């Protein structure tokens, strides 16, 4: 099977579809990761601020 035959075949179309779907999924995953990481960073900063203001009594 030559490259031209493959390009005209249905298998090539399916391959292109899968490449496009995979690229879209990777792009969406990166976008979601960025949003979640930003929100998680803010939550961690707030938790750190709250915990640093707590006094721990070590005397009995």
TrEMBL record:
Stretches that traverse the bilayer: 18-40
Lineage, opening ranks: Bacteria, Pseudomonadati, Pseudomonadota, Alphaproteobacteria, Rhodobacterales
Protein's name according to its UniProt entry: Flp pilus assembly protein, pilin Flp
Keywords: Membrane, Transmembrane, Transmembrane helix
Provenance organism: Jannaschia rubra
């Amino acid at each position: 099977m030559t490259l031209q035959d493959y390009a005209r075949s249905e298998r090539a179309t399916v391959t292109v579809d899968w490449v496009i779907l995979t690229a879209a999924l990777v792009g969406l995953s990166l976008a979601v990761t960025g949003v979640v990481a930003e929100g998680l960073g803010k939550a961690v900063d707030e938790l750190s601020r709250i915990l640093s203001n707590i006094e721990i009594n070590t005397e009995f």
